[in-house]
Every structure is written in C-alpha cells, then in structure tokens.
Amino acid sequence: MTAAKTPLGPSALGTGNRGQAVKSTSMGMGMTHNMQKPHTARADSHMKSGTPSAKARSHMYGNTSTKAQINAAHAVSTPLPSKASTQKKGSTNRARPQQEKRQQSAREPISAKREERLRHDAKLNRDAEVAEAYIWARRRRARARLYAIIIVSFALIALSAYVIYKGVFIVKSISVELPDDGVSLYSASDIITAAGIAEGDGMFSFSSAKIKQAVITACPYISDVTIHRKYPDGIVISITEEKAVFYTVISGQYALVSPTFRVLEFIGGDDGAADAARAAEYVKNAGLIKLKLPRVTEAIAGRSIKLEASENNGEMEDIVRALLARVSKDDFVDRISVVGATDRFALYLVCDGKYRFELGSVDDLDVKMTLACEMLRDEIFATGNKGTLYLSDVTQPSVIIDNRINLD
C-alpha cells in the first residue's frame, strides 16, 4: 500500500530504467482499477497487460519526453552541488548559531567588566575628592595655626619691645668726647642740646644719622658726629671738628671755608664798610688762604658750597674739594696766599706773594704739588724777584722770572 501512494516524478521516467518505472506504474494503475471502474475497454486491456501505451502515459503524466528534456537542460545549465560543499554548508549553518551564542556570551562579560571598571573608577574619584578635601582642610587649619602663631609672636615682640623701651633701656647719662687736643669751640651742653637727647629717653628712640645732621647744622665747625650707646643706660657723643683754612667773599660777606669745602662761618658785611674791614683784618691775622671761585649759587653754614655749573666747570665742586684737601696737607701751606679755581683747566696758586704756580687741571695733582715744593727750595727763589712756575706738564716743568706779572 505504501508503494502505491508514492508518486513517480519525471526524473524517474527520464532515466534508463524505464521498465522498472513502467512496472511500478502498472502496479499503481492496477490498484486504481480495483478502486474505480475503467472508462474504456482499451484502457482496461492496457491496464491488465501492465504496459500502458504512450498516449496513456501522456494522458496520465503529461509529455514525459518534454519534461525529461527540461530536466536534462537544467542538469546541464545548473550543476548539482558536490557532497563536500553540501557538508560544508551544512556545517556552516550548524556553526552559525553557536558562534552567535559565543559572541553574545563574550559581550555579556565585557559589559559586566566595563560596568565594574566604571564603578571602580567612580569610587576612586570619590575617594580622591574626599582625600583632597581632607588635605585642604588640614592645610587651612595649619595655615590658621601659623597665622595665629605669627600674630601672637608679633604681639609678644611688640610688648617686649615696649617694656624694654619704657622700663629697661632708659637714658640716664649723656657725655661728650672732645677732639684729640681737647679743645673745642663748643661746650658739651651746646652739643647735647643740638643733639636733642635728654635723660629719660629710650636708648633706641632716636636715629644716629638725624642727630649727626642736627649737631653739624647747629655747630658748623663740627664735621663728624658718632653716637655710642653704653648699655644699659649711657650715651656718648664723639665729635670731630674742622678748622678754617680758606676764605672767600660771597655777597660782601667773608665765608670761612674748611678743607672739605664746607662753610664754617660768615663774618663781616653786616655793618657796612667798617665791618668788612674788620673781617678782612681777621682773615689776614688768622693766615687764611684766599679762595677764588666761579659764581656761587648756595652757601649755608655747615654745608658744602654749591657752584654754578657751566660747560668748562662741570664737576667743579669735586675739583675744588680735591684741590683744597691736597693744598691743606702740603708742607708749604703756610706760604700759600691764594688758590685760584675759577676755571677747571686753569688752576693756580700764589705763594709768598711773588710766585704763581700754574697747575692746569687737577690731573697729577700730587706730582705737581711735589714739584712745586722742590722748586721753592731752589736758590732762584731766595731773591725778591717774581716769577711763574708752569707745572701743567709734569714732564717739562719750567720757570719764568718776571717782576711785572699779575699774581691775582
């Protein structure tokens, strides 16, 4: 019964085993004949014989030769897959779900690890923020403690200084040390008054520089002041005085000048000609050297003289200061009567009232003064003749004897 129900395709008919196919067909037709009546006797005879005719086969199965030709053409145009390719395709189809499953299982752990890493990073960030906040809090507390310590320290220092200033280092004695010869134009009380220090003042309540300037201004003959603190309560004032060596006439007054080019005192000129005559007599008797200068712009007792600046007299104050300092130290300073410094390139000296030393500039001043001292010892200057000594060129000094020269 099972073989009767299986249909036979055209491929079976197209093969070379046609007899087997016809036999199977006849068996099927016999079973069909048993189930239903034949339409014609001819068909019955064919069915009984088991060999259907070509027309019957065509009626039952269609045009078998045409289907066989189509199947043959299809077989030629489309080759059948090989067994190896069929097995490979089947294995690929079977492996694809497994591969997708493995990829899905691989993706799931990666996502889990990433989430775990993100959670770990977030925890680290939170921990870092907490640690940073803790560190900044500690720094703020440390800074606050440092500020508190500094403030307290300054307060303690200020309090200690105040206590020391008011209660410990208090001036109880003031003394004055006079120059080496023990002779001074000013008394100790004058100097202490000029310094402005009194008993009961703090040892550190005054400035030494300010005291020095105040004493020199009040006592112009004093050139230097030194303050010594003798702890715990003593002050010693040491002074250095200058003497007038030169003089110059400024606006009708005689200004007494020190070797450092400072004005020590003004005399004469207040009461007219008579006072000027007394001042001239005073400077003559004191043996002061006349100083000739360019125009004076400022002259204050206790300070250096200020000169008018010009093209030829730049730095003239320093030049005059150097000249006066060198002349005052020379051995024949008592023989010099005039120092001319009206031109920086034409400096000169007048010695013994009859010799004029042309020094030129201030360059090589020590050599020039040494040559002048040696030339004054020469016999030629033992007579009463006047002459001019040219020392501007120290390599070729020369002398000209001329009684008609103008010494001033």
Topology (elements, then pairings):
Elements: H1 2-5, H2 10-14, H3 18-35, H4 41-49, H5 54-61, H6 64-77, H7 83-168, E1 173-177, H8 188-195, H9 208-218, E2 222-230, E3 234-241, E4 246-250, E5 253-257, E6 263-267, H10 273-285, E7 289-292, E8 296-298, E9 306-307, H11 316-328, E10 336-340, E11 347-351, E12 355-360, H12 365-376, E13 387-390, E14 398-401
Parallel strand pairs: 1-3, 4-7, 7-10, 12-13
Antiparallel strand pairs: 2-3, 4-5, 5-6, 8-9, 10-11, 11-12, 13-14
Helix pairs in contact: 3-4, 8-9
> Which stretches are poorly predicted, pLDDT < 50 over at least 5 residues?
1-51, 54-59, 73-78
Number of strands: 14
The number of helical elements comes to 12
For the largest sheet, list the strands in their spatial order: 6-5-4-7-10-11-12-13-14
> What is Rg?
69 Å
User: Sheet with the most strands?
Assistant: 9 strands, mixed
- Taken as a percent bin, the fraction of beta residues is 15-25%
What percentage of residues falls in helices of 4 or more residues?
Answer: 40-55%
Helices and strands, in order, run as HHHHHHHEHHEEEEEHEEEHEEEHEE
Class per helix and strand makeup: alpha/beta
- Could you give the distance between the termini? 173 Å
Oligomer: single chain
Mean pLDDT: 76
Shape: elongated
